[in-house]
Amino acid sequence: MRLAFRIMSLLFLCVGTIAAAVDAIASVSASRVILTPLASIWNDVSPASLLKLQSMLEMRFGPAAWSTVQDLLLPQPGFVVLFALSLVFWMVGYKKPSLAGRFAA
């Protein structure tokens, strides 16, 4: 199970790095800071899954849950959210080192 969380962490890290690189390139070419919101990235990659998430949240938790996600999470810069998800999945999949040490029996 830890392996699955670590793989998800790696995937979010890779996608977040790509999103950050795209924002950096756009910022340099426009000579101003450009931060692409998560909603825009998600809509470009897979608009159907965004609509599925909306219907799932509204069905299970009510319309207030979707409005909260729409107001708080989706306007944030995409690479920041992806890096945060990568960190969360890495922390869940992290294995603490043994207290006895590396060469303990």
Task: Please explain how this structure is put together.
With 105 residues, this protein is mainly alpha-helical. The protein folds into 2 domains: 1-34 and 78-94; 37-76, no CATH class. Helix content is 75%, strand content 0%. It has helices at residues 2-30, 38-45, 47-61, 63-73, 78-93. Helix 2 (38-45) crosses helix 3 and helix 3 (47-61) crosses helix 4 (63-73). The model has no long low-confidence stretch (mean pLDDT 94). Keywords: Membrane, Signal, Transmembrane, Transmembrane helix. The chain crosses the membrane at residues 73-92.
Strand-helix topology:
Blueprint: H1 2-30, H2 38-45, H3 47-61, H4 63-73, H5 78-93
Keywords: Membrane, Signal, Transmembrane, Transmembrane helix
Transmembrane segments: 73-92
Signal peptide: 1-20
